[in-house]
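G., the chain you wanted modeled:
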Amino acid sequence: MVLDNPLRRHTVTVVDRVLVGEDDRGHDVYEDVERPVSGCNMQPVSSAEANDGKTQVVTRWRLAGPPAMGLTALSRVKFRGVLYEVDGDSGEHGSFGGLLDHTEAFLKVVSG
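Predicted structure as tokens:
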């Protein structure tokens, strides 16, 4: 029996870089492929501002999603119109009986 988790009500769009071939010089050619993933939870973690002659803001979020959602360090995640980078490797977490199985990742966006 699978119980609905009220915290997993967000849908995100995962943007994967997929190798589609080579150009005429032998260089790899990649394409961005988008796929919606439901059953996610997005929570803000932190925001830091640096002002060294130019203001830069780094905002981090925590993503908890379904197990085996296929995130890599090169994936990007779109949520509410903002495109985030996956910050490091994502983690796959298992639980006794599978009730709390999930993928977890930190995301970041840099502006300025």
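The chain has a mean pLDDT of 90.

Shout if anything looks off.
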